[in-house]
Amino acid sequence: MKQPFDFAHLDPSRDPPENYRLAYELFCEIWSRLRLFRSSHLADEFLAELLANLENQVLAAGLLLAIKIEVDADADR
After folding, report:
1. What is the Cα Rg of the chain in Å?
2. Residue 52 near residue 46, CB atoms below 8 Å
3. Which distant-in-sequence residues (6+ apart) come within 8 Å of 65 by Cβ?
4. Separation CA 44–CA 30 (nearest Å)
5. I want to staple 38 with a disulfide (CB 3.0 to 4.6 A). Which of 21, 51, 64, 75 is the partner?
6. Span 11-64, pLDDT tens digits
7. 24 neighbors 65 (Cβ within 8 angstroms)
8. What sign for the dihedral angle of Cα 34, 3, 71, 16?
9. pTM higher than 0.85
10. CA nearest 59: which of 30, 36, 39, 17?
11. For residues 56 and 54, what is the distance between their CA atoms, to the nearest angstrom?
12. What angle in degrees, to the nearest 10, is found between the helix axes of 18-40 and 45-75?
């Protein structure tokens, strides 16, 4: 499953700091697991709504991290 906040790296010399990469990988893993768990529990309305909320929060945090990585990369130029 493609992650919603995945982006292509064009210049390897501008790689983000390792802590950011690790956090990004963690967000991707959490996102994938939430999607998988949610799809297997669609019959439970409460769980489906709770997991949708969690997905939105993870998506927002991952998006902010991706923006931070891009801003830092632009600042280094």
Report:
1. 15
2. no
3. 5, 20, 23, 24, 27
4. 20
5. 51
6. 666 666 778 788 888 888 888 888 888 888 888 899 988 988 998 998 888 888
7. yes
8. positive
9. no
10. 30
11. 5
12. 160
> For residue 27, with 0-12 CB atoms within 10 Å meaning exposed, 13-18 middle and 19 or more buried, which class applies?
buried
Tokens coding 72: 């830092």
The secondary structure of residue 17, as a DSSP letter, is P
Q: Which two tokens stand for residue 12?
A: 């390897």
What is the structure's pLDDT at 1?
47
Whether 2 has a pLDDT exceeding 80, the answer reads: no
